[in-house]
Specification:
InterPro entries: CBASS_pafABC_assoc_protein, WCX_dom, WYL_dom. By secondary structure, the protein is α+β, with helices and mostly antiparallel strands. The protein folds into four domains: 73 residues, Arc Repressor Mutant, subunit A; 43 residues; 92 residues, SH3 type barrels (Roll); 78 residues, Alpha-Beta Plaits (2-Layer Sandwich). Helices cover 39% and strands 25% of the residues. Strands 3, 4, 5, 6, 7, 8, 9, 10 and 11 form a nine-stranded antiparallel sheet that branches. A two-stranded antiparallel sheet has the order 1-2. A hairpin with an 8-residue loop joins strand 5 and strand 6. Helix 1 packs across helix 3. The protein is elongated and about 85 Å long.
């Protein structure tokens, strides 16, 4: 009797597990596999159906006559479709945000949760990993740890390695949010000891360690620095303070500016020029501005304008013999 009950338990669990994975259950095949009658399999299926109803799962058992199998149908359609999963996979790969081992694990888990036939599963599981990713260290634990501090409004202390430095610097911060931009994650925070009342972007791959302190912060955000607004002021592969810029755009479509700089505001325009202002974190914006050639003229800040002029002159020197 014990062996019979164990056999039944294994049989029911096996069917339920496969149903949850999106497979169909054929009564005749199950009866042959487990060497029992089809009526026994039907009773097992009825028990699974009763359990689903009692547990109030968002699915129900349905018989697909064309395939002659029982399948789980998700009532609220709260699972990702195969098309959605493939799109997310492509975005993850293009972001280059994760180390290869993490990327592989996440993609495999995403693909395994999709109800797809063998051909579609092959598409989801195709070799996506022949891509170069410069990231060597996982940031996932750090992102989670700092995100918890943000939700609890706790001051943190980080060991931050500035560019060209050998040893990290200890910095106390009021963390606001984490942003992904230009292949990197950034922590946006107030420097606890700074007299400047502006948020600063810190590249998270430069954070060697972080610690929660005992004191909380209650500094309210002004309308100007709401978290959702901070996400529009993108860092450009560089850390630094929030930088206001003003420039003229002389190209064909001002949508180019709005697409690249979500915080941009069009102040005025005429037939050939658009006068914009925007805010970004750090001076990494300089490389993008230069990439736009003669379509953009930076007006402010004057220091950035002078840097761009100096860079253009240096470029001219590189081509003086041509």
């Amino acid at each position: 009797m014990v062996d019979s009950q164990q056999s039944k338990g294994y049989r029911v669990l096996s069917m339920f597990d496969r149903l949850m994975d999106g497979h169909g259950i054929n009564k005749k095949q199950e009866a042959l596999t487990h060497q029992v009658g089809e009526k026994t399999i039907q009773r097992d299926i009825d028990q699974i159906r009763a359990y689903i109803a009692k547990a109030k799962l968002d699915c129900h058992l349905q018989y697909a006559r064309s395939e002659k199998v029982y399948k789980l149908i998700h009532t609220n359609n709260n699972r990702l479709s195969k098309e959605q999963v493939l799109t997310i996979i492509k975005i993850l790969i293009a972001s280059k945000a994760l180390v290869k081992s993490e990327l592989s694990t996440i993609i495999e888990k995403l693909a395994s949760n999709v109800q797809a036939n063998k051909r579609e599963q092959m598409v989801l599981n195709e070799n996506h990993f022949d891509v170069d990713t410069y990231r060597k260290q996982s940031l996932i634990p750090l992102i989670w740890r700092i995100s918890e501090a943000i939700s609890k409004k706790i001051i943190i202390q980080i060991d931050y390695l500035h560019e060209d430095d050998i040893t990290p610097t200890e910095i106390m911060l009021q963390p606001l949010t984490i942003i992904f931009s230009e292949y990197d994650f950034y922590l946006i925070a107030y420097d606890y000891h700074s007299k400047k009342d502006v948020p600063i972007a810190y590249r998270m791959d430069h954070i060697q360690d972080s610690r929660e302190l005992t004191n909380k912060f209650y500094k309210p955000f002004t309308d100007h620095f709401q978290v959702e607004e901070l996400h529009k002021r993108k860092p450009f592969m560089d850390a630094g303070e929030l930088l206001p810029i003003r420039f003229l755009y002389k190209g064909k479509s001002p949508k180019t500016i709005f697409n690249r700089l979500p915080s941009a505001k069009l102040l005025s325009q005429n037939d050939s020029e658009y006068f914009f202002e925007a805010e970004v974190f750090g001076i990494g914006i300089k490389m993008w501005l230069l990439s736009q050639g003669a379509t953009i003229e930076v007006l402010e800040p004057i220091e950035l304008r002078e840097e761009i002029i100096a860079t253009i002159q240096a470029i001219q020197q590189n081509y003086r013999c041509i």
